[in-house]
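Researcher: We're reviewing a set of sequences before deciding which ones to prioritize for further study. For each one, I'd like a predicted 3D structure that I can look through quickly. This is ABC transporter permease. If possible, include the structure in token form so it fits the rest of the review sheet.
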Amino acid sequence: MAFTTDTRKRLVTAALVAPAAIWLFVFLVLPFMAIVVFSVGERAPEGGYQTAFTFAQFANLGSRAAAFRNTMLIAPLGAFLCLIVAYPVAYYLAIKASPRYRLLLVSLVVVPFWTSLLVRTYAWMYILGSRGIPNLLSMIGIEDVRLLNTPGAVLLGIVYGYLPLMIMPIYVSLEKLDRRLLEASADLGARPVSTFFGVTLPLSLPGVMTGVALVTILLLGEYLIPQLLGGGKVFFIGNALVDLFLQSRNWPFGSAIAVTLVAVVVIVLSVAMRIAFKISGSRQVDLV
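Model: Here's the predicted structure for ABC transporter permease, in token form for your review sheet.
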């Protein structure tokens, strides 16, 4: 049986896409479907899941309002602080750094990923703890300074842990920037600041939105940093899920929170894509 050229192309495409599609369906779609089923069930007397059909779990989301509030406030703020720190670094790497050392500098950005986030967060626990910075401050007469177990400590850990994920999309966007546009702007008499806000920043917005969306989405499910640097006083949705699934064993309520979190992520991603598309005009914007 002979196949046309178009048919062969479709078969090849299907063969290439099939492994990834099957993987996503088995390990992403099916587990999420199970979570959705759990979310409309009830907690069994001994804990876990009991078959039912009720939306009472969603009606009870208000009992975890603190976790939602902390997550919705600190996660976007952490992403914004990452952006403030990351953009100058990415700009230097892509525009100002010598090509001879650029690869080395970019490698240094990703070096922290070679070490477990758990180890790096424990290091910050020591730095911010009583034997770290507060101890040094007490030596110069500044007493009773508490840095650990505060929202500030959580934000610091977020910026440190997620900074490379913000730098790299912005760097890629700036690295692709046509240098002739910058030269043309200078030749037309524009000052460096005007060139930055009129040319560089608008053209790098796809990378900026990619980094902001990526970091924000990951932060919405963050567990480790609030647990260690927040000391249980800065409670995220991820901490609530661990408590409900592993300690309280209230799987339906935990599933309802998880479904709500996924809905929030979808909304955040959709809004980010819409904003990026409007700002960037007809330029292609890839956030995932």
